[in-house]
User: Fold these one by one.
Assistant:
Number 1:
Amino acid sequence: MELIVAVLLTVTTAATPLLLAAMGELVVERSGVLNLGVEGMIVVGAVVAFAMAQISGNPYLGALCGALAGCAFSLLFGFLSLTLVTNQVATGLALTILGLGLSGMIGENFVGQPGVQLEPIAIPLLSSLPLVGPLVFNQDIIFYLSILSVVGVSWFLFRTRIGLQLRAIGDSHGSAHALGISVIKTRYLAVMFGGVCAGLAGAQLSLVYTPQWVENMSAGRGWIALALVVFASWRPLRVLAGAYLFGAVTIGQLHAQALGFGIPSQFLSALPYLATIIVLVLISRNRRLTLMNTPASLGQSFVPDR
Amino acid sequence: MKKTLLAITAAAVVSLGATAAQAATKVCFVYVGSKTDGGWTQAHDIGRQELQAHFGDKIETPYLENVAEGPDAERAIERFARSGCELIFTTSFGFMEPTLDVAKKFPDVKFEHATGYKTSDNVTSYNSRFYQGRYIQGQIAGKISKTGVAGYIASFPIPEVVRGINSFLLGAQSVNPDFKIKVVWVNSWFDAGKEADAAKALVDQGVDILTQHTDSTAPMQVAAERGINAFGQASDMIEAGPNTQLTAIIDSWGPYYIKRTQAMMDGTWKSQSTWDGLIDGILTMAPYTNMPDDVKQMAMETEAKITNGEMHPFTGPVTKQDGSEWLKGGEVADDGTLLGMNFYVMGVDDKLPQ
Amino acid sequence: MRIELERRPGHSALFSVLSPFIALGLTVVAGAIMFTALDKNPIDALYSFFIEPLTEVWSLHELAIKAAPLILIAVGLSVCFRSNNWNIGAEGQFIIGGVTGSILPIMVHQWDSWLVLPVMLIMGMIGGAAYAAIPALLKTRFNTNEILSSLMLVYVAQLFLDWIVRGPWRNPEGFNFPESREFDVEAILPELLPASGRADLGIIFAVVATLLTWFMMRYMLRGFEVSVLGQSARAGRFAGFSANKMVFFAFLFSGALAGLAGISEVSGSIEQLQPVISPGYGFTAIIVAFLGRLNPLGIFAAGLILALTYLGGEAAQISIGLPDKIARVFQGLLLFFVLACDTLIHYRVRLKFVAHAEPAGEGA
């Protein structure tokens, strides 16, 4: 029992940054924008969160600043791709290059410092439940926010008027504009939300996962988050499932190694990626369902005609 | 400042290059990672700073960070050779072939390549006997561990890492014959998240001592969180675990860099294959902390014995993992076998990819 | 204040030519400000970035070596992207091309004939194409999103290479270090002008691929098919083009070029297989493709410029001690300015001064 809880706790820690970043990107993509700069935003969020936590001694302030930094950085993408209608794929990739460089520059003086950790917050009563208590109700604030983001985004996209508008823009920005919805403004907000989520995911890395700053500490998690959004066919609950599945396979392969199965470790390391492809194939075989959820104008620039 | 004869000849050779050698001798470094990576490259960079401090303004020590292995490395090294560097240290195994290639073209420049096995007239190979430190760590683990199982977070299955695993285990078995280790490969030298995950997985499976052959302090943090002990790697990681770290293997390249630069200035530099260890000060142990006095006493004795050559970690009888005999009683392993070590000794709970 | 764009009737020929220079000008200004803020002499820094690598012959060779794989991959990707197929796994195809191309010099290394090299190159192309066929097959057969499947296959390819050089293909004379047997001389891509530098046939492949692709896109029915299907699958169907066949064509074409780049790099520069054979060429090439506006000739220029910033970054590290992180930030700035200025080709930019401002004007 204790072992199960311990293993599952490791899985939640590994899954939380993926979940947050993917949830942000999901909203961005639902509005029809493809931001491939997630990796860059995460790493900027991570360094700013760590730096501010070190300077102020308050990890909560750090996490907040990390989220804001991710947001500010996403605006750079927004300005280029939305206002200046540059190609979104290239702009996103450039954002990642810039983010990796910038974070290295900012973090230069913080390398090797032991960090301040975001401590778990136990929710009274609930946290003493068996199994779910320690797993779900005795976690850090970013974990709670990540779960909240799933609920919030689901509600927002499918139960609110502005969520409907956002999806309409993603499906056909021309028609949405004709209906009087402000395409660019909505997309800016979506991109900023994506930035906040990615920044928080970064803060989780440098304040919870491994409370320290090391260069490139996102280590490809932004790309995984991007993959998860497609994997989930743009459905919030599936992002949740996908992030935890990926986390579980990642942790599972380490346990398989420690048990000494004697399978080449490269093969085990490749498992999460192969599993993702296989599950995706299974999901996407239903062509109708996939098309229904795919934002039709994803990646296309919009300039209002007058 | 007076120009040495060497500087003049070197300057003549590279005068086709953009910048000729100035008054100061140039000793150059090519790094595979970032100089603030907290591990491998940082240790080399600290060595470089010590070198700079030792010779003051007699030398210049430019460096290139984050140089990818492959064609980028060859370009970086050649750029240094052309810009008037007289001695170039290339500090990653993957730089071996590029170093040799460039060295062929610049016979008057001297090169030193870390952790490889090839040399030439102007290329020296240098390495550190990290396994000596791992043997001491193993002994400490054997004494301290209650479960008799240690977790080993490993990077890549290369001889260097395999040697460390074996040496650690032999050390542990010398005080507790039933000692076992569990190995997890993370397939990376440096990925804090993955190292932390591996550390947690190992602790969850019942190990109560962690050691690592990866560079981040994440496993130390996990050990501190879970209230067990751990060993630091590449540099002193005591800050990450003040109540956790037992000791650490510290790569101290500074003395070696000073020695070789001095030799180059004196004109006594010769190509060689160096494999230094505790005795040469290229490898030092962090203070023994968080352990009972008798264990500390034992560790210090072992360190002294290895340093003065009284003891060799790989001394028979040693049995391989498959049960065959490797070293007879009293037999000491030769450097050739150690350099290409490709098998586990008895007691490792893992299979090596063949 | 807000910025408004107005679509030009056609694309502006003037700004097509001018925009890269405006971008360069802006980068120089922004770079100068950044370098000054960091206490570096901006003139020295800019000189070592853009000029110094071009002043020496050996360095021009290095430029060709660095640019060749970027151009080869990006030219292939341009066809893919134009046909609306999102292959972002060129890095994986590059690696697999390097591996399959190395089968001959590693497993049958006794065979020495002039035939070795051509066969290697062809096998590299086949390997890259075959690996790219996986996402194409999944897309056409199972409707699987190719962005995801091609990206995931990159990680699989990296780990496969890692396994093969540590396991079955480990150099028998290499003290069990992770590397393959060294290639014999027949298996090494010849250098063009060995007297002056290391540049090998790779850059020639890049030139040929650029010209052939340009010719195809401009004058051949296949090129027309790519553009039509890329702009509207429906229109393509009316014209009698098959979208599924195009998926395969685009992936196989870009995969083959990435594979060729892979084996050229292995055979020309590394001369053996190592656990890592690419510093991310497959991803950088995506940027190159877009910087070159998906036009093969533009891509050739973009590949050279991006390669120059890598060389310049190193030059600046050595000559003025500019940390490599700042070099990367500078590179990112350059990319942003180039992308932003290309807007001028299709749009007029107006600044409007009105009372109510757009919620988010200028970015960070």
Number 2:
Amino acid sequence: MNHSQAVVLGEMPSLSKLYVNAAASAARRRLLGASSGKKRLPAVSHEVRGVRADVENLTAYQHLVGETASDTLPAGYVHSLAFPVSMSVMNREDFPLPLLGMIHLRNRIEQLVPIQFDQELDVRSWAENLAGHRAGTQLDVVSEVRAGSSEDLLWRGVSTYLAKGVFLPGIDKPGSPHGATGASEFVPPDPTALWQLNLDAGRNYAAVSGDFNPIHLSVLSAKALGLRGSIAHGMYLASRALADVGAVKAESFAWNVTFEAPVFLPARVALDITTVQADSGNWERSDYVAWNPRSGRRHFTGTVAALT
Amino acid sequence: MAAADVTTDGPLESATHPQTTRSAVIVGGNRIPFARTGGAYVKSSNQDMLTAALDGLIARFGLQDERIGEVAAGAVLKHSRDFNLTREAVLGSALSPETPAYDLQQACATGLETVIGLSNKIKLGQIDSGIAGGVDSASDAPIAVSEGLRDILLDLNRAKTTVQKLKIIGRIRPKDLAPDAPNTGEPRTGLSMGEHQALTTAQWKISREAQDELAYNSHRNLASAYQRGFFDDLITPYRGLNQDSNLRADTTLEKLSTLKPVFGKNLGSEATMTAGNSTPLTDGASTVLLATEEWADAHGLPKLATVLDGEAAAVDFVHGKDGLLMAPVFAVPRLLARHGLTFEDIDFFEIHEAFAGTVLSTLAAWEDEEFGRTRLGLGGALGKVDRAKLNINGSSLAAGHPFAATGGRIVASLAKMLHEKGMVDGRPARGLISVCAAGGQGVVAILEAA
């Protein structure tokens, strides 16, 4: 994918405006028919320079996801810093898929170097890997965070999203669906933690992350988008798991999460974290899995692993 | 190990042979800069700040994944959910999660008492390493519900039927909804700490000028300590602060003299205590690494000073026999006597500046012949503290005073000063710490250069 053409935005895009814009274009699609006819991702990246964390917002984020309010930005917080830039890419006129209702399938973050809260950062995002999925069309949105005005890559995130039910001409579905069989065989282990998520979990995370996607805010707004109730943000759940892994992790790490069944609010979520040590005794990685303690349905799985 | 000798000697004998115990050395310390309340740490909790101070200490001395013998810390303004504050901070830090911890609370003496308690455990052979500390946030102070509402909520919890519950809810009156914020008032007298000190300040006839001069020296000394880099290996920045935000390097005696009195305004004598010569409410945290000499050597870490001994005292302040913050006046002569020392044998005096008036009243009591005879049971005055040895790198008036964090600040700074001083007349340099506390208490300690 050619994303060499960089559009430098003058300021951090407003997520609320992006969501309003996305809602308007969703309505337009509904009126004018589904397909925009575009089947390629925009060959540009969006960039915002000189981004800085707001310390009060950072502290609120840290407290909400269970991190200590240290001066180092949690990897999930960097994701929320970069999120408006990614959203602005997906909100472009020439973006081929509807932004609203997009499902977060997977996320991979590499925290290469710890980032301090007062560092100036350049954030660049683009979309790539448009591909068929048995339930629609998927793509990767890549974000890279560098130390201000330098080429030093500090953080890299790849979010894989699915536009459910959207099939673009010329992009084939993959052959046999895989992974579904693995999910059905899941036998819940004994949990290491049990989370009680209230109805306001979505609103609370929206307040600190800025991600006011209506599917997370209330039963009503979620129903308007075809869900039976509001669901927790995937990155909120993954960030809590990352916080639960705790200070044992190395300074540089890769953090993966694969989302399966959404967590409808309110909810109890069972979590198991397994720590794997290298022969040296040093921490190598922590694997986590979360499930619904009543139904045994798996919500998400992931790993936090040392980067060497 | 020496500890084994102690236990085989039997408890009675071991108590009479303190020389058989090991010494507890101060390896170093770390704190975050102290911030005036409502400032840089406004949203940070006690746990956040204690963890930040702890993580800085861990980084400085390479303690990642280290199982420390025990960590002891505390906070004065503490939410009930923080019952395991120190253990939670340990779990959130890079220390081994197999490091035990306990909370301690002795008002403003909390920090110093954690140092004494852990050094005693080290001396007794119970642990080889320990981290002492303290934290306080006046910004993120716990707010309790009123007694009336608390009573109703507890009844509600016990109620079984809906009718019972509705009846109980019906008892709530608007006045019950007023929150109950912590304050510095003494429960038995209703007087704030400042008002109590104003009584003592007047009793000892401490002048406004003397108090302002002490405050001025505190700022000047702290500023010059920062300037020559004294705190470079004692502090890690947090939330954008690199030094104590209360420090006014450019303050002058003239500026201090223009401030209006805030305490003691209704006493018969002139009111002399201002915001300038009283400590402000502050947020912050401090930690101190203690160990046996062997542990420090095995880890390739410095040995700055040893904790020689500590002493606690309390005064009957409730009906005014002594001032609220005067307990150290009694603790110090007892501690000195136990070691056969006088003020001549002390090279640094670290007297916590709760108020300038506290320090000056304490010094005045020690200089008073009659007080020495009648109250301290001495032949005369305890002695005169050489001002050139008093709080030479600044103290709480300039740095601020996050209650439980002050002890750790003083111990780490004094240990470094003693190490720099080394030997004096063929003996290790000695420092005396004196910390007053609410409830008419005081804790004092002597450190020696290692």
